[in-house]
């Protein structure tokens, strides 16, 4: 049996923007309204179908966004295949910090070609739009 390719995606952004909720919603299709800060990093895996039709083991890494825990998660940036920058649509400050998160990620992940590394920006908490 051929070994499945593993694809590592890292979620980063300020604390409280909903990185853990995004991950849990995608992997388990469930949402928890309670907030618990991530300390360091944690990941969940799911087998998904890649663009070429092959099965891929997708690892979605959730990293700490709160400053006091953020340094613990940076060790888990290495080996990432993509990075999702998450901000809350109810917090301009979380959007404004995305460039800092991107630079920090590139510094610690050290991808082979930083200019071509895939980043995705996700505006989360659209249900809180009236708080914008």
From TrEMBL:
Q: Does the keyword Metal-binding apply?
A: no
Does the keyword GTP-binding belong to this entry? yes
Q: Name one GO cellular component term.
A: late endosome
UniProtKB keywords: GTP-binding, Hydrolase, Lipoprotein, Nucleotide-binding, Prenylation
**Coiled-coil features, chain-numbered ranges:** none
Q: Which organism is it from?
A: Piptocephalis cylindrospora
NCBIfam families associated with the record: small_GTP (TIGR00231)
Q: What is this protein called?
A: P-loop containing nucleoside triphosphate hydrolase protein
Q: Tell me where on the tree of life, at the top rank, the source sits.
A: Eukaryota
Family classification: Belongs to the small GTPase superfamily. Rab family.
Q: Which Pfam families match?
A: Ras (PF00071)
What InterPro entries would the database entry show?
A: P-loop_NTPase, Small_GTP-bd, Small_GTPase
């Amino acid at each position: 049996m051929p070994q499945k390719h593993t694809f590592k995606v890292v979620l980063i952004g300020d604390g409280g923007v909903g990185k853990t909720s995004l991950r849990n919603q995608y992997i388990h299709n469930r949402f928890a309204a309670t907030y618990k800060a991530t300390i360091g990093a944690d990941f969940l895996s799911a087998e998904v179908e890649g663009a070429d039709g092959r099965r891929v083991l997708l690892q979605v890494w959730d990293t700490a966004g709160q400053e006091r825990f953020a340094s613990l998660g940076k060790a888990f940036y290495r080996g990432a295949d993509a990075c999702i920058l998450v901000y809350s649509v109810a917090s301009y400050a979380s959007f404004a910090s995305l460039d800092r998160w991107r630079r920090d990620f590139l510094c610690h992940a050290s991808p082979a070609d930083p200019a071509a590394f895939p980043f995705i920006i996700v505006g989360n908490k659209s249900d809180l739009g009236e708080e914008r």
